[in-house]
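Protein modeling request. Please complete all fields; requests missing the sequence field cannot be processed.
Requester role: graduate student
Desired output: 3D structure, token encoding
Chains: 1
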Amino acid sequence: MQNTQDFLTNAILAIATVYAILMILDFFAGLVKLWNACTHQQNNKAYSVNDKQVTDRNTSPASNEPVNNPESLSIRLTDTTAPSTTDDIDTESLTLLIEKLPQPRIRTAARRLGIADKVNGHYQRLAILRTQMKAKLTSQPKEVARVLSELTLQTSTSRPKVIAG
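Delivered output (165 residues):
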């Protein structure tokens, strides 16, 4: 009876030790991955868009007037079926930007990209919106880059709030 009890005690200690060693190894492996990701990302830009793209597009303020042209609301079939060139768009940094955007910016970007942020009267979870935006990034990277650049441009040019008091 004493031998069985000693064996089980030693087995429990061995299992706990192996588990602790595996946790420590996993922790250090995660740190190495994080270190490699930080050294891989050399520029501090959140995303890169060609200056020519930004200057070629006329950015106009959003208006609340209804659109009289129904053709402008439809999605062209050539846009969705044509292979997109992502040579000039850094999709990795856009993916990181999508992950780091706060809730209001994610919801605004999703609406502008045609992704429903409400389903059956309830807001979708941010993880679902981010996943849909990443899927849209793979299919339409230029459109996602344009929307995200408009959002970040609005935040960088917005005036600071003055608190009276």
